[in-house]
Each structure stands twice: as C-alpha cells, then as structure tokens.
Design goal:
The protein is α+β, with helices and mostly antiparallel strands. The chain has a single domain, classed as hypothetical protein yedk fold, CATH 3.90.1680.10. The chain is built from five helices and 14 strands. It has helices spanning 11-18, 75-80, 85-90, 167-174, 180-186, and strands spanning 5-7, 21-22, 29-32, 37-42, 45-54, 72-74, 92-97, 99-107, 110-118, 124-134, 139-149, 160-162, 164-165, 195-199. A five-stranded antiparallel β-sheet has the order 3-1-8-9-14, with no helix packed on it. The protein has a five-stranded mixed beta barrel with strand order 4-5-11-10-7. A hairpin with a 2-residue loop joins strand 8 (99-107) and strand 9. The chain starts with a strand and ends in a 32-residue tail after the last strand. The relative contact order is 0.18.
Length: 231
C-alpha cells in the first residue's frame, strides 16, 4: 500500500507545472497521510487546487486503523468493479506529489522505509478518483489514490506503486470527453520515470512528525530502530 507521500515543492513551481492556482494557503508536506486534507485537481475544475480528504472514511473512524482499500485503489479492481465506474467517468482527479514512501521488507515483520522520487526532482501527477459524501450531515470531498503493480524498478521495494501519469495521459485523464476505452488504456500504461530511492528514518510512521528531515538519507533501520546492512 501507499500511505505516505510528500508535497514540498515551492507553490509557484507547482502552479506552473500543473497550470493551476492555490486559492487556499499552501503548506509544504513531508508526511502526508490518509484522513488528512490534501490538494488535488479535479477534472471539473482544472484551474485550481482543492483540498480533499485522503480516504473514504467517516469522522467516527478517523482514530481507527484504516484499511488500504479506503485510500488506495489498484487498477485491476478499478476496471472490474461497477461501483467505481461513475467516479471513473466523471470524478477523476490528479494528486500532485514530489515523492512517496515505501516499506521494504527484509525480515519477518520487519521493514525499512525508503523515499522514492524523480531524479530531476520534478513533481509527479498521480491518478485518483474522488467522491462527495454526507458525513454526519456535512458534505465532505474524499479522494482515493490509484495504484498499479510495481515495475521492475520498484519490485525490490514493494509490490505496488502510485499510478504516475505522463503529460499525454494527464490531458486525457482530465478531459471530460475521454471514453471508457481510453481510460482503460491509460491505467495500463507504466511510465519509466528516472526514479531514485534512499532509506529514511522510521519516524515517518509518526503522524506528528512532518519536517524536511524525514526525507533525508538515513542509515537503514527497521521500525524498531535496529540497524541492518540490507539496502
């Protein structure tokens, strides 16, 4: 699953890269996680970033452990389940990120966190869908990140990765006139962006931590602080 990412690129760079403006205050994030309000761009409002909640979950469950199914949606499930077709048709969105975290297993019940980003440090556009829910009589917008099977670069770290869109796919993904068949082709594409990976501190597991130090290279260690030679 993908349950952590970063969005720390300068506001002006993001606005230029995605041709969209922030109406609300932009705060750099180094530990973005499910249940938090995070910026997305929807196909019906491509001119602005909007803050939606990550994960289809009600307030009463915010303090419980979330199932990955609530904030990640793999491409196979997306294409097979009829329940997602309405969102896929008219509620597509882009999730701007500049990196994401994965946990590389190295022993039974042990893993090392790694930070993945583009070598050129440019932002990534991740495919997503969004829904509006009545949450205790309050209309709340939620988004779900679409994931795909990891390519050969990512399989040593994790079985799945975010569905990263290329420039051509971004245009089609955000176009209301894109057909279901064209969408089906988009979610099959794997972009071989030049990516880089390095181990980071297991402190990313703590949602109270959100600072630039989280993405710095750290000696590989498991979540219990035990160091290892595996990388």
């Amino acid at each position: 699953m993908i349950d952590r990412y970063t969005l720390s690129t300068h506001k002006e760079v993001l606005e230029k890269h995605f041709s969209a403006a922030f109406k609300d205050e932009f705060i750099p994030r180094y530990n973005a996680a499910p249940t938090q309000d995070l910026p997305v761009i929807t196909q019906d409002n491509t001119a602005h970033f909007q803050y939606f909640k990550w994960g289809l979950i009600s307030n009463w469950a915010n303090n419980k452990k979330m199932s990955p199914k609530l904030f990640n949606l793999d491409t196979e499930t997306l294409s097979k389940k009829a329940s997602h077709q309405k969102s896929l048709k008219s509620h597509r969105c882009l999730i701007p990120i500049d990196g994401f975290y994965v946990w590389k297993p190295f022993a039974k019940k042990k893993a090392i966190p790694y930070f993945i980003s583009r070598k050129d440090k440019k932002p990534l556009a991740i495919a997503g869908i969004w829904e509006e829910k009545d949450d205790f009589n309050e209309e709340v917008d939620f988004f779900t990140m679409i994931t795909q099977h990891s390519d050969k670069r990512m399989t040593p770290y994790q079985e799945n990765m975010p569905l990263c869109l290329g420039e051509k796919e971004i245009i089609s993904w955000m176009n209301a006139g894109t057909t279901a068949l064209e969408i089906e082709e988009i979610i099959k594409v794997t972009h071989l962006w030049p990516l880089t990976a390095h181990p980071v501190s297991p402190l990313i597991a703590n949602l109270e931590k959100d600072s630039p130090s989280l993405i710095k290279h750290s000696q590989p260690s498991d979540q219990h602080g035990n160091y290892t030679l595996f990388q």
